Structure formats: C-alpha cells, structure tokens
C-alpha cells in the first residue's frame, strides 16, 4: 500500500532544532530521486579529500629546493625517495619512503591569494567572482564536490554519500564551498562537528523504543514523536532542515546499523589508532577509511578549523624566525605519520585501488622567506598528492623552477583536479547541474589530468 508522507509543520521542524537522526545531519537525508547517473567507467568507488587549510609550503613538503639560497631553501633540507632523482622535504621521511605509491603534482596553480577565495576554489573547483578575503558564503556560489557526487551518483539506501568533519573552516567569515549551495539541502554533507580523537566520540543516536517497529516508522507522525521524545540526545547535531524532502532516507539510516557503526572508533585496535596518530586529524583520517568502507563516496577531512597558529593550520607567515620552525615541527610530523598510515591501511584492506586519496591545500607558500620570518601566500605554484583510485604509482607530474616559484612543466588548476576526481568516480566532468535560476552549469570547468591515471 502506497503512502503519501505529510509535510512536517513549521513548529515540528523548529522543535527538532539541532537534532538529527542518529546524530546525522538531516540535510544529508535528502534524496534526489531523479539524479542522472554516471556515464563514465569508474576507477574509484570513493574519494577521501584531505583539505590542508592554510596552505602547505611546497618547499617544506613535496618540492624542496636544497640548492637554492638560504632565504628560499628554508629551515630544512631534503630526503631521498625511492624514485630516482625525486626528493621530498626532510621532515616527511615516512612519506618519502612510500613515494612509489604516490602521484605528486608539482604544478598546481591559480591566482587567488586570499584564504577564503582560494579555499572556495579548492573546495569546488570553480574560481570565485573576485579574489577577496571578504568573500561570503551564498547560494549563488558553487556547491562542494561531495554535494555534486550526491546529486549525480548517490550512495545506496541507508548510507551517506557525502561526509564532512570535524570543522567548519573559516578565515574571519565561513569559507564558501563546504555545502550544497543551490543544489539544496538534500545534497548537503552529513557533517560531524565533533573531535574523533575524544574518548567519548560518538554520534548521538535515536534508538527504537520496544513498542515502535520499523513498519510504524513509515508513519511520519511516529518518527516526529520519536525525535521529540529523544531530543536531549541530539543537541550536538546539525539543524534539522529539509526533513520533509527525504523522509525515506532518514528512516533507512535509522534502521541501518552498518553505517552508524562506522563512527564507533572504539572498534579499532589501539595499534591502528596509534598508527594514525592520536590527534583530531589522525583519527579523522581513520574515520574516513571507516565511512568509505561503509559505503560513503566522498569524504572531506579538514586538517584544521583556522588557517594558522598553534594547533591550527598551515598559514605560517611567522612573526619571528623562531616561531615558524616551532609550528612546522608540529605540522610536518603529524602529516608524515597520518598520510602514510591511511594509505597503508587502505592498501592492506584491499581498498586503495578503488579509493582515491587527495591531499591538497588552497595554495602554497612564497619561494622567499618574508621579513617576518615565514612564507606568505603563493597560488602560482604548489603541490597536490594523490594515491589510489586508478592513479599512477611513483609518478611526479609537472616541475617548478629552481626557486619553486612557477611551473616550468605542466599545468594543473583546481578545476582540472575537480575534473580528475569526478572522472575517477565515473561522473562525466561535462555533466550539468542547474542553479537557482535553472541555468545549466558544468560540474567542472576543467579537464581531467590524463597523465595522472594508470
């Protein structure tokens, strides 16, 4: 017998407030029943997008210049990799030891010098209308990669297609590009604003009372009452917007234990958790493996909430010459522990071949160390690292000049990286979505970087 769900009242939605089923964002439950399917052959089932907020320096990571002058070479030397003639920064030796599993792009480039505009560009693959630190989030701007994946290639019933955590990144104002924008709340990420490194990290759950069967959950009245009765469990979840649009998906996730269990990191051994590093970022990368294993297709792991400062992101302008090495001595070892742990774990579980890992920030850092003792913003040439998902192993694409200032070989822009990720998932980069004015827009303005593919 078919049923026509009744729309929840304004009062009911407001009463739910910060609640969401299973601690999950209701926007994630919104389905797109008539979404066009992928037409390309997929090389990957999922993408883990490790966004390095603040802008990692190419000189300290994947494109060191040990023979450059002191004010370019920087604080560290270089270390050899397994690839002939290829060197990485000396503070990432574990990554260097697995260079034969990576594709390194040394010619990423664009022209946005402010964090919010460059951050939006890196999270959507679409250049903002202006390079302005005051760029504000709006429904006129482009949706996040994962929201497009949710629109065009949604995960099976009971699974969140797009998962993002543990921060809402910002530089003054919230950086655009972290949600579904004009695609609608139905394609927003399942966003988890909790620290996965906390001992009590869990998603608040709705549990089924003994007198409430799965069949009864097909009644909207019953599920709204259930939410009201358990609202105290859901205070840490996102605002329940868009409930009416995806009732069926909400019920599916409520009654599907596999995806819920992916968020229980206590199921992992202490050895595995220690391998990733007992940091917010380290445990976030472990969580990414778990949610992909459970069926998610696009995962945004934000390295930090803010751009720089102790315990924050990669923005190391520096206020004195001593403070910059102190900060890098936190950032680089953390990166050198977590990225290899994720890639090794995926490989050992047989998941690396069909999971694309992408490590990239919004830009790089200036070739010359500034008078403040650090490196300033530099979008003209920076690095990205890819692994798995059909990419080449032990491959370097592009090259920079002797100072690491400009690309001399190759060109890769954020829109090209976007096209590469979409194509890996089997989504045609020329597929179209429609904005609020019903105008058709291509999901990518770039071209897949064919040289990266095996």
Automatic annotation (TrEMBL):
Keyword Protease set for record: no
Leader sequence residues: 1-31
Keyword field: Signal
UniProt xrefs under InterPro entries: Alkaline_phosphatase_core_sf (IPR017850), DUF1501 (IPR010869), TAT_signal (IPR006311)
Source organism superkingdom: Bacteria
PROSITE patterns: TAT
SUPFAM superfamilies tied to this protein: Alkaline phosphatase-like (SSF53649)
Name the UniProt record assigns to this protein: Uncharacterized DUF1501 protein, type 2
Record organism: Frigoriglobus tundricola
Lineage: Bacteria, Pseudomonadati, Planctomycetota, Planctomycetia, Gemmatales
């Amino acid at each position: 017998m078919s049923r026509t769900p009744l729309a929840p009242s304004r009062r009911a939605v407001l009463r739910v407030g910060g609640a969401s089923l299973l601690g999950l964002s209701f926007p994630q439950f919104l389905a797109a029943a008539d979404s066009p399917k992928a037409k390309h052959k997929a090389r990957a089932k999922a993408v883990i997008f490790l966004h390095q907020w603040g802008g990692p320096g190419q000189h300290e990571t994947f494109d060191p210049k040990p023979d450059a002058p002191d004010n370019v070479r920087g604080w560290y030397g270089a270390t050899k990799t397994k690839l002939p003639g290829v060197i990485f920064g000396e503070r990432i030796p574990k990554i260097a030891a697995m260079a034969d599993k990576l594709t390194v792009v040394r010619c990423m480039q664009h022209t946005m010098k402010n964090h919010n505009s460059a951050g939006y560009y890196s999270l959507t693959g679409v250049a903002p209308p202006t390079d302005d630190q005051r760029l504000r989030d709006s429904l006129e701007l482009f949706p996040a990669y994962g929201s497009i994946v949710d629109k065009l290639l949604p995960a099976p019933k009971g699974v969140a297609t797009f998962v993002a955590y543990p921060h809402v990144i910002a530089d003054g104002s919230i950086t655009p590009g972290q949600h579904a924008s004009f695609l609608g709340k139905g394609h927003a990420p399942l966003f988890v604003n909790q620290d996965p490194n906390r001992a009590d990290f869990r998603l608040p759950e709705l549990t089924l009372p003994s007198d409430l069967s799965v069949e009864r959950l097909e009644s909207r009245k019953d599920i709204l009452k259930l939410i009201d009765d358990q609202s105290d469990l859901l205070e840490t979840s996102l605002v329940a917007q868009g409930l009416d649009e995806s009732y069926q998906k909400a019920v599916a996730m409520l009654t599907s234990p596999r995806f819920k269990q992916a968020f229980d990191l206590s199921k992992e051994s202490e050895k595995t958790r220690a391998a990733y590093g007992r940091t917010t970022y380290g445990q976030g990368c472990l969580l990414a493996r778990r949610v992909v294993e459970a069926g998610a297709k696009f995962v945004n792991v934000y390295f930090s909430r803010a751009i720089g400062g102790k315990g924050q992101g990669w923005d190391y302008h520096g206020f004195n010459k001593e403070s910059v090495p102190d900060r890098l001595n936190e950032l680089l070892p953390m990166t050198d522990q977590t990225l290899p742990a994720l890639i090794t774990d995926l490989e050992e579980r047989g998941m690396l071949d069909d999971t694309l890992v992408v490590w990239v920030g919004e830009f790089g850092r200036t070739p010359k160390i500034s008078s403040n003792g650090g490196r300033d913003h530099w979008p003209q040439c920076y690095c990205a690292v890819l692994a798995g998902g059909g990419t080449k192993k032990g491959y370097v694409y592009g090259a920079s000049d002797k100072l690491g200032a400009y690309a001399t070989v190759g060109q890769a822009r954020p829109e090209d990286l976007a096209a590469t990720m979409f194509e890996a998932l089997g989504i045609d980069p020329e597929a179209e979505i429609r904005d609020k004015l019903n105008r058709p827009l291509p999901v990518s303005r770039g071209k897949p970087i064919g040289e990266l593919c095996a």
